[in-house]
Amino acid sequence: MAEKRLKLKKNTKNNTITYALVLAVFLLIEIMQGTGNISSLLSGLLVPLCMYSILAVSLNLTVGILGELSLGHAGFMCIGAYASSIFSVVTQNTITNVWIRFPIAILIGGLFAAVFGILIGIPILRLKGDYLAIVTLAFGEIIKNVLGSIYVGYDSHGVHMTFESASSLDMEPDGTLLINGPLGISGTPNDSNFIVGIVLLAITLIVVLNFINSRAGRAVMSLRDNRIAAESVGINVTKYKLMAFTISAFFAGIAGVLYSHNLSILAATSKNFGYNMSIMILVFVVLGGIGSIRGSMIAACVLTIIPEKLRELQDYRMLIYAIVLIVMMLLTSSPKMVKFWEAHSPKRFIEDKFRSKKSKAKGVQ
User: Fold this and answer.
1) In whole angstroms, what is the distance from residue 117 CA to residue 253 CA?
2) What is the pLDDT of residues 264-289, one digit of tens each?
3) How far is Cα 162 from Cα 44, in angstroms, rounded to an integer?
4) If you count DSSP H runs as helices and E runs as strands, how many of each does the chain have, helices first?
5) Conformation bin of residue 184: beta by default, left when phi > 0, alpha when psi is -120 to 50
6) Phi then psi dihedrals of residue 139, to 5 deg
7) For helices 293-309 and 2-35, what crossing angle results, to 10°?
8) Are 65 and 220 a contacting pair, CB within 8 Å?
9) Could you give the C-alpha distances from 156 to 27, 152, 168, 331, 361, in angstroms and in order?
10) Distance CA 365, CA 361 (A)
11) For the CA atoms of 304, 310, 312, 315, what is the dihedral angle to 10 degrees?
């Protein structure tokens, strides 16, 4: 019982540190913006930083907590982006209040991604390891290619869809073209901003961290550690794996909403919805520490800012970026370096100082 209370106290403390870190960064950015001390580069990266952090945290739920390798996270992001953009384009003239329209768009994007997470998760979560990775990769590529090839429009006769061309939709002259094949969706209202991104990141952290520390989260981790032992005590494997996978897909869809409402044109054929995007999110998770939610956020922010800061170096930019990746991997994965950071962490320093003062006070007495 005492061990359980100690573990609960430790989890609460770690979660509080994570929330405090996000709040501190938000206040720092707001102060910098208020005083005009923020660069145009950093200002343009604020929404993408929130988006990548949400993607990294949500994927860590699948890779780190569930223990399954998924390479289709960009596919869920693409679904959320397209579903929310279609809703916003269709309703921007009828729902003119952005504080009503955008929250609904966020929910629609997340829910559509979650539905696809359930539909995909039911058959593929029976697979393990490389097989699961290959199938999720195929899912992401299929979603990207389908949405990049389809033409969708609507008029008084209803919705029209085709894979041929926009002219073959056979719409009325006053009909509206929603998805223009490889050109995607245009006219999405620019509703995303840093405050909305931080709020969505905070909601993601609250839901994911509370899920991890809940009974369901402990069941998911038991499946990761020893599936046979978990099944032997009556844990429903399909239920808990699907639960974690669906939550992960939901927040990937929300990240897609942030992305789509930060651009004027949304195209599934862009590199941000392909295989490379899924790999990049996985890199955030691995370098931040598999299972470490706070580490995923930090890695996402660092690895997003570094390439942009190195653009002026041109030919040497990717070389330096690769070196930084290797160094970060060594610093976060090497057992010796982990022990070193634990021994020299600020927390350990404060605790040692407190102990020394306490022992001196006892000696004086």
Assistant:
1) 10
2) 889 887 778 888 899 899 989 988 88
3) 36
4) 14, 5
5) left
6) -60, -45
7) 30
8) yes
9) 49, 14, 17, 60, 83
10) 6
11) -110
Tokens of 332: 């976060």
The distance in angstroms from the start CA to the end CA of the chain is 35
Query: What does the block give as tokens for 53?
Result: 């952090």
Backbone φ, ψ for residue 50 (5° rounding): -65, -40
- C-alpha distances in angstroms, 106 versus 90, 188, 207, 250, 300? 15, 13, 16, 10, 22
Q: What is the DSSP string of 159-186?
A: EEEESS-GGGG---TT-EEEEEGGG-EE
Query: Which tokens in the block code for residue 242?
Result: 């699907």
DSSP structural state of residue 64: I
DSSP conformation letters of 136-167: HHHHHHHHHHHHTT-EEEEETTEEEEESS-GG
> In this structure, what token pair is assigned to residue 361?
């006070």
Q: Which of 55, 45, 116 is nearest to 255 (CA)?
A: 55
Predicted TM-score (pTM) above 0.85? yes
3-state secondary structure of 302: helix
pLDDT in tens, 36-65: 888 888 898 999 999 999 999 999 999 999
The pair of three-digit structure tokens given for residue 270, joined into one six-digit string = 């862009």
3-class SS of residue 198: helix
Angle 285-264-248 from CA coordinates, rounded to 5°: 25
Residue with tokens 């392909």: 274
